[in-house]
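Co-fold these.
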Amino acid sequence: MAFGGLFLLVLLLCLLAPVYSRYVAHIGPNTNDITGTVRVGGRVEDVVSPIGIPIGPTWHTRFLLGADQNGRTVAVRLLYGGRTSLEIGFIAAAITIVLGVAFGLVAGYYRGAVDSVLTRFMDLIWAYPAVLLGVAIGTSIAVGGGIGIGPFQLRGNSILVPALVIGLVYVPYVAKPIRGQVLSLREQEFVQAARCLGCGSLRIMLSEILPNLTSTILVFVPLMVAGAILLEASLSFLGAGVQPPNASWGTMIQGGLPLLTTSPQLVLAPGIALVLAVLGINVFGEGVRDALDPRSQIRVGR
Amino acid sequence: MAPLLEVEHLRVRFRTDAGALQAVDDVSFSLSDGKVLAIVGESGSGKSVTALTLMGLTRSANTELEGAVRFDGADLLHAPERDLRRVRGGGMAMIFQNPMTALNPVQRVGAQIVEQIRAHDRVSRSEAWKRAVTLLRRVGITRPEVRARAYPHEFSGGMRQRVMIAAALSCSPRLIVADEPTTALDVTTQSQIMDELEQLCRESTVALILITHDIGLVARMADDVLVMYGGRALEHAPADAVFADPLHPYTWALLRSVPRLDGDRVERLPTIGGSPPSLLHPPSGCHFRPRCPHSFGRCTEVPPLRASVDPEADGHPGAEPEGERHLDRCWLGLDDKRRLRRLDEEAPALVRTDGAA
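Predicted complex below.
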């Protein structure tokens, strides 16, 4: 539960960043302060030195964790970036779960040709390395300036683009196990009983089979959120995810890479945040699994 | 008046990797409103497949169905799935063998009945809930308004089977197919459940197809009996006739293997030697031939299902109009059957103990 708490803490800090960061740091996430100065321990220092090295951690409300080469404050960008990363993580996980469960349910329930087509399609997605596929789709959408399907317009720099890409990439990871479970559930006697009493396919899928998948789905949610956050960081690091100047942990690591030797905090801060968030949600997910899975002997202490 | 359900020359064959499997071979019967037909036979005799076929649940790419199933005049065997769905639940409902697995474990029992009601009738959720509670009360569940909110694991086996019966009754079907409804229950619960089921069926003149191993149950409830073996009907007659004058060697062997309350206590119940035939490689001719003590040369040909003709005319039950309906599938002559049966058993066949049923 400690890790669950840790994750909630990171989550709250990041999501509430717009509410409080302005009052603490007096600076926005994208504000350039490249020519500014800051008072540290009685001395006035440049935010970015004349040779281009940004200031290190001041451990003071202004530039708490230092600045980057554009004179933007790392601490605030870390929170805003975390917010972006987490939002993408949750949206992507939601897309993955909804599509994965729908595909798994339909493929497992109807079997036959429907199953073959859907399963081969899933295999096709699965056969690509997730990052490669993400880069390919993400870049093409970003370069193409976004996509429009009917009334839904998606701009190339919207955070929904990486969320959508990541959501799609992970669908097979959920659809496959769900399909397997549906295959066994549909042969259960209660499904046959429901059919005997005149229930149609849709009703059987939604009110007989779906409720039996709840625990599996609940186990998948934290895993998918963690996976999505990591993939988002990878894609952003490679330039195919969140587009600058928007902050995300991945873009921050990428931006800090050239200054790794002189200003390691630029890479370390988002890196550590990423590790904490993913570790927190993974352990939290383990806890959820242990609590829900009757076969696992280990119970979470209370 | 046309009977409620007519099954004519039903054949069900499954194509499997090991070859064709003739699960049901030329089975015919009919059933009128409010009547009870018992289908008896060992495991693997095709009883359940017959029942599932009536409900249209054996349809698949590897199933061949022949013959006719007419429910209320309409053909079901080749009806489109949509029409079948209307008949299931509304026209005929099924009660399964194992109440432990026939209820959805993650749904409240009331909600399951509500689902079934709403699959047929356009009623509001609260209206359906009220009907579900009424049904649960009818099948003898105390405090139904509270129990409807419980999950299946909070019920005992007998209570769960009552819930299944309530669900089956939820759309006022005219026929209930009960596939060994009490096999999974203990003996006292069995008798209670069957009493209740019988009463509910008689109350609302619902016809019942009772699939069972339990000869006592058949004696108590059935109007007609169909004895199945290896996918074929071996004997089909009114229940009284079957118990008073079983004509097929398999039927009398089956009746002898039931413990009796009257008469001497025997050390060991008679059993039928051997095991039921494999439906993949059935014996030629009469399926019962390998286990039949009275088989003779002609038994390698498939005997027809026919009324036994009594050569000695009047006086014998076989010559009464009732005898027209007493069909069996054996090459032995009527006299031979009766003579051999008497030799097989000193005591007379099982007598119905209560005249009421």
